[in-house]
Design a protein that fits this description.
There is one protein chain. The chain is an alpha+beta fold. The chain has one domain: Clavaminate synthase-like (Double-stranded beta-helix, 4-Layer Sandwich). It contains five helices and 14 strands. The longest helix has 16 residues. Bound molecules: fe (ii) ion. Fe (ii) ion binds next to loops.
Length: 228
């Protein structure tokens, strides 16, 4: 896709691209950390309201972490520098955030791709939708843990994160196995990063993951999460 500078973004065109395929790419005019974070913030403020991630910061710079360095309930604590599996950001919240904005400060060496997969392409049958909408799933999040389903009845978002979702019965196990199987057989898009590149993901529609990385690769992405 053609990339345009984030500062001259045409909002209707951006929303149309997000509607069409669930993610959009832009490029920061100032590709250093401060410039990228500033442009992500401006874009985020256009799309909705910023919300904090696990680290409780509204703006974060994320980098590949070893298992021992990561937040105890994060995917990095489970997978470390290996590939991070597909997930929806903030699946441990009652409603995951709507948009995930990432900006590349440093690709790292070796670089690691971000993989994207639209859950609507996973070919669920009506019986499978019933399972995903009905099977109880436990979201493990300390004192805020709660029971829910992978899909809400309006199918507006898809809750999935192997780091915090847990089956509590046979139907739940079947639902999570179904998702895992379909994700394995899906046809993801691999996003290659370049410095100053910005990726906006509709987190209700497109799951994301990361390719394997190396400790000390230098990969750094700015991240902003948006409720809308
Ligand atoms: Fe993520």
């Amino acid at each position: 896709m053609k990339t345009v500078p984030a500062t001259i973004v045409d909002l209707p065109a951006l929303l149309a691209t997000l509607e069409e395929r669930g993610w959009a790419t832009l490029s920061a005019v100032r590709p250093e950390a401060g410039g990228i974070i500033g442009e992500l913030s401006r874009l985020g403020d256009i799309l909705g309201v910023r919300t904090a991630g696990r680290g409780s910061a509204l703006e974060e710079v994320i980098q590949p972490q070893r298992q021992s360095e990561a937040h105890s309930r994060s995917l990095s604590a489970l997978f470390g520098l290996s590939a991070l599996p597909f997930h929806a950001e903030l699946s441990h919240r009652p409603r995951p955030c709507r948009y995930l904005l990432l900006g590349c400060i440093d690709t790292g060496s070796p670089s690691a791709v971000t993989v994207l997969l639209d859950w609507r392409t996973l070919g669920f049958s009506s019986e499978e939708f019933e399972l995903l909408e009905g099977a109880p799933i436990l979201v493990r999040c300390g004192r805020s843990s709660f029971y829910t389903t992978v899909l809400p009845s309006d199918r507006s978002f898809f809750r999935y994160d192997p780091g915090c979702l847990e089956a509590v019965d046979a139907r739940g196990r079947a639902a999570l196995r179904l998702v895992e199987d379909r994700l394995t057989g899906g046809a993801p898009h691999s996003h290659e990063w370049r410095p100053g590149g910005i990726l906006i993901i509709d987190n209700w529609r497109v799951l994301h993951g990361r390719g394997p990385s190396d400790h000390g690769s230098g990969r750094r992405l700015a991240r902003i999460l948006i409720d809308a």
